[in-house]
Amino acid sequence: MSRIDILVPENNVRSVHMLVARRLAEKNHDVALVGVAAPGVHWSLGYILRLERKAMRIRGNDLLEPVEGVELSS
Questions:
Q1: For the whole model, what pTM was predicted?
Q2: How confident is the model at residue 1 (pLDDT cuts 50, 70, 90)?
Q3: How many whole angstroms separate alpha carbon 16 and alpha carbon 29?
Q4: How far apart are CA 29 and CA 7, in angstroms?
Q5: 36 φ, ψ to 5°?
Q6: Which residues is 14 bridged to in the sheet?
Q7: Is residue 4 within 8 Å of residue 35, measured between CB atoms?
Q8: Does residue 18 register a pLDDT over 90?
Q9: Close Cβ partners of 72 (under 8 Å, ≥ 6 residues apart)
Q10: For residues 38 and 5, what is the distance between their CA atoms, to the nearest angstrom?
């Protein structure tokens, strides 16, 4: 199958990134999460997601939660 690199902010990997990678791997694709510099994304994205959850009264959406300790390719 094909090689797929998923570009993710190097200091802000989310559960959704892991889900997409896992589902592609289950389809026999060679998948790698590649960390890229994304200055300012961590603070601003987290703020926007919290605001959206509060405004929309969204609970239990773990896909947008940060994931620690993920091994990224370069």
A1: 0.75
A2: low
A3: 17
A4: 16
A5: -130, 150
A6: 66
A7: no
A8: yes
A9: 8, 10, 13, 33, 34, 35
A10: 16
